[in-house]
Amino acid sequence: MKAEDPFVSIVVPLYNERESVAELHQELQTALGALGRPSEVIYVDDGSRDGTLDLLKSLPDARVISFVRNFGKSKALECGFAQARGRYILTLDGDLQDDPREIPKFLEALEQGSDLVVGWKVNRKDSLEKRFVSKIANGMARAIAGSAVHDMNCGFKGLRAEVAKNLHFYGDMHRYLPAVIGAMGYRVAEVPIAHRARKHGRSKYGVWRLFAGFFDLLTLLFLRRFFDRPMHFFGLLGLALNAAGAVILLYLTYVKLAIGESIGGRPLLFLGILLMVVGFQLLSLGLLGELVVRQKSGEIVPIRYRQ
């Protein structure tokens, strides 16, 4: 880090949060001023349509990045992380529910050696629907992705710069950042934080996002376990289907040869053939995947290390 670079960068993704921006910026300036360390605030406007960008441009001591349309929170975070210059990078939501006065907790945990620090909203001030959906999502994430944090989707997080800049998001994978970073071999910690009720606007989180998040979670699970060894996934399925098809065809062979019954019109015959064909296709797909991985292994699975 250069001498003139900030100690901490705050990245705030925003989408239609005009009513909250001015108050949030004032709170951030107060909290960062109390640190007594160089800092910067980066707002990423994700294609807002309510005038959020116009208000952002009028804020003092703020860097503003604007998307021409809504690309989603994952891309907003990735862009903000890429532009941040601080040793540590913190991100929080722009709806005033995260309290900037909690920033020192994240910095303390990061300086103690953590690579990612996740906020834990012990006493949530959200609606019953949002708490219910979040509880289900966090439960599924812990069970499937193996993350130990209580609130994986908490928007208040802190990262080391070298970790944040190695992240490449797609879809809505920002929700599972602790699982992603944990799978990369980095150290993940959490700190209890205060949480506030939403003052302006409406929450963009609902039941429908639970289903979208479930598919993202399945994608994450696949990538964590089979991204660099596709044959372990497709090969296992292919062998299982081949085995089932072989059992069916052997049974029908016995029926034909030992009992003498006709099997040409039996649906079971077509099922057995179908299982064998699909099984061989999956095995072939696994082999092709292995060839691609071996050809680009240096690009796909970078080795993480510390000096």
From TrEMBL:
One of its GO terms (cellular component) is plasma membrane. Keywords: Cell membrane, Glycosyltransferase, Lipopolysaccharide biosynthesis, Membrane, Transferase, Transmembrane, Transmembrane helix. It comes from the Bacteria. Residues 9-165 form the Glycosyltransferase 2-like domain. It comes from Candidatus Adlerbacteria bacterium RIFCSPLOWO2_01_FULL_54_16. GO terms for molecular function: undecaprenyl-phosphate 4-deoxy-4-formamido-L-arabinose transferase activity. It holds the Pfam family Glycos_transf_2. This is Glycosyltransferase 2-like domain-containing protein. The keyword Transcription does not apply. InterPro entries: Glyco_trans_2-like, Glycosyltransferase_2, Nucleotide-diphossugar_trans. GO terms for biological process: lipopolysaccharide biosynthetic process. The chain crosses the membrane at residues 206-227, 233-255, 267-288.
